[in-house]
Structures are given as structure tokens and as C-alpha cells.
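Just wondering, does anyone understand these C-alpha cells?
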Amino acid sequence: MKKVPNYKIAKSELSFSEKVGQLFMPAAFINDTEEEIQKLEKLIREHGIGSLCFFHSRASAATNYEGKKEVLYNADSFQTLQALIKRYQSVSKYPLLIAIDAEWGLAMRIENTPQYPYNITLGAIQENNDLIFEVGKNIAKDCKAAGIHWNLAPCVDINNNPNNPVIGYRSFGEDKNKVTEKALAFIKGAQSEGVLTSIKHFPGHGDTATDSHLGLPLIEKSKEELIANELYPFQKLIEEGVDSVMVGHLSVPALANGQKISSSISKDIIKGVLRNEMGFNGVVISDALNMHAVSKNYTIKGELEWLVFDAGNDVLCFAEHIPEGISTILKNASEAQIEESFERVWKLKENALQSVRAESRTVSKPETNTLLNRKLAENSLTLLHGNDTDIADFRSSNFCTLTIKRSLLENDTEDVLSGVIEMKSEVEQEKDILILLTPPQVKPANTFGLLQEEIDFINELIRNKNVVLYLFGNPYVLNRLSIQNAKAVVIAYQNFTEFQDVATEHFLGKLKAKGKLPVSVNTNAN
């Protein structure tokens, strides 16, 4: 086994400038060009960078994705990730802490790797948090196989806004206690493998209709309301001893002495609320600094990095102006301020690198992933409307099956509309219809990728036919449907094979639905 470096000795070797460099976490992209890779290597060598956060590609970064830039897919992403981590580690004077967003597995960023259900699916599971522990554990194992020490998950945002454009399916639900217990199970699963986690997005991104990748959300609740709800999971998990807290780019005036500035640059929120009032002494990491909620407001290179550090963030994630940021921090910060953050970050790194050793060089075997996903599907399937008797009666009828499923790539409006006309013709004479609905996307933008004509068609069927609906997607799409008129509505949440199989067995009466919808939907919509 490779000898673990003695970080306690190595720490004394860092120059003051290198200590500041340890606070920076630039983005690394799996599909970068050789020129871009060498540029990052130079940055690591010259500035003592402390950590990297891996993303798929520059075009897939959230701030670019809305621009519809072409995303290149790489079948060998996992091997590329391993090679890049090894390469970047080799040029670093001090071992790098490697991070990634793997909320539902490495598949969130990397093709051909295990994917687990979204948090909203896990939120539907009742009294079986051991399964969620296994999700956290399995994802951590895959992180270790790649050489990753820090999973920037889970989201502990309480999603109580159905129009939330960026959290929604990433939340365990709208109940603060359920969100807390499920997040804790996920965290403990990761900890069992020695992988770090980060609860996010402090002080809570659940009740907003603005995507902080693109703009600054404003949450106008009283401090009392926030303490009772949004802050609750953070407080409880801090008391359990979490590794780190990620601060979101959210404007929460009630916590910022009335100021409408981002939480990520608010001393009142980070040093005041998080540190002093809530008692968190661990590492605070910023949300990505390329996000437009903050990046578009600070045009002087290094200014945003200084403001984020000065507000109390120890790790500056996705910092884009590192030489200027280091220079500005060295110029403005006190020695004690820098040492305090450095000590927290180095301690986290010391713990992580001594506990995470890549025991395997490949991700979990498909059969392991399949077995767990099957259990998750069985325990999350939710019968929202109607009952088993209704479905049994329907099953004995001469029903027809209508599958409504397409990808976002199939977005030619003319073709989609032609498909709707064709489906109308197919079911015109039918009375009993089983609808299997998979919306094109999980995010609510543009009605989950569905055209209004498609929604109108589904609602027309529900109102005028005898319909049983199985939904393989974000349950918030039901706010657009007249589900009160359906014979039965069942939510399968995911379109994985395992979830499709479980839904089929449920329809055939071979198993019961055990899940409960973790968020509210309007059963009287339309």
C-alpha cells in the first residue's frame, strides 16, 4: 500500500502565499483540451492550489447550459477522470483535495458510471433509511475508485416551491424532519467509506423561483420563519458533526441585517449566523463563483474572491481569477484571518487524504447498482390517486397502452405535434387508456420539456377517457395535469429499468406501492 504522506510536517513547509492558494478550488473539466489542461497544471504548480472540483465539460456547466452550447459526450469519461486526477496530483507540490458533485452518483457528471435516484425519489421512501445509507456508501465507493475525496452533497434544501428551477428533484422533500433524517443517512453512508460530504445550499435554496446559476434569488422570510424551517436541517446536521457547509448565492435580508446581498459574501450570514449562532466550526465552502448570481456583479479580477473569503468562506469553489484573488487576499487580509481558514482546510485535507485510498480502480459493478436501485424503486413507488381495486378493475378491461416519451434531442416542434395528432387518432375509439408518461426533462423549465399541446392532449384524455397514469419523472409535472379526473395515478419517479419493472409489477397486482409523495402537488390543477 502506498505510504500516506505526513501532512503535519508538510504543513510547515508552505509559504504564506501557498497557504492562501490552498483555499482555492478551481474547476477541472473532463473534456478539456490539452492546452486547457496545461493551463490548469501551471496554475497548480505556481500558486499552491489546494483542491479541484471536477465537471464534465465547459459547455455543460450550468451557466453555459442555458445557451444550448453543444455538449460533447465521452464514453471513456471515467478513465479520463482517473487519468486527469493522477496527472494533476503529479504536478502539485502538496496533495490536492479532489471534489465533485455526485448527488445521485458520479453519473451526475460522468457517462457510463452508476446512477442512483434523485433525492426526491429517496424522499418518498418510508421508514427505511438504511437504503439511503447504502446510496451514500455506494456513491462514496465510486468516488474513491476515481480518486475523489469530497462529494459536494447532499442538498438539504427544503423544497416548498413547486416552481423552483434548480432544486426541486434535488431535495428530499418539503418536510424538515424527513429532509434531515434522510440527509443524515446519506452522509453516514459516505462517512463509512471515509469520503467527505458537504451540506448545501446554506441558508436554504428551496423556496425560490430563481436559479442562482443565472440570477440572485431573493428570499423574503422573517428570521423566525427561517430558523423554524430552512435552517433546521443545517442546525441538526451541524450538531451531528458534518464535514463542511456550502453557502449558496441567495439574498436573505432577514439574516443579513436587512442587506439584499448574496449569502456567499455576507459576514452577517456566514460569521454571524452560521459560525456564531449555529456553532459551526468546520470548513465553509462557497457555491461556484462562476454562477451569475454573483459573478456578473464583480468585474474587477480578484474582487469577488476577496469578498467571498472575507465573508467567511474557507474554500473558494470554481474561482476563476486565482492569481488576482490570491494577490488581493494577501493584500487585504490579516495573517490571523488567513491562518484560521488555512488550518480548517488543512485539517479537512489531512483527514480526507489519510482515510481515502482508492481500493478499486473501477466503479461499482452493474449488478450491485441494479440490486440497490430495484430496492429503492420498490420502496419509493407511490400510489397518489385511486387505489389498488381501481387499478385491478382497470386491468381487467380492454385497455390500450399509450407511451409518451421522448428526449430533449427530439425537440422539433413539427414532429412532436405530428406525433400528438397520430396518438389522438390511435386512441380516438378507445375507452380505457394506460398512460406511461416520461417527461423529456426533470427540470421544470419549459414545462419539463413538454409542449403545451402535449399537456392539453393528456388532460383531454384524463377528462374524457378512463385513464390510469404512471409517471416516470419529476412529480411536480402533475401540477400541470388534471389528475383528479384520472382513475389512478402512480408515481415511479425515475425512468430506470428497475423502476419500470417495479411499476409493471405494481400494475399487474404483484406488489404494493410503499412510497409517499414527499412534496405537495395540486390535485385540482387544470
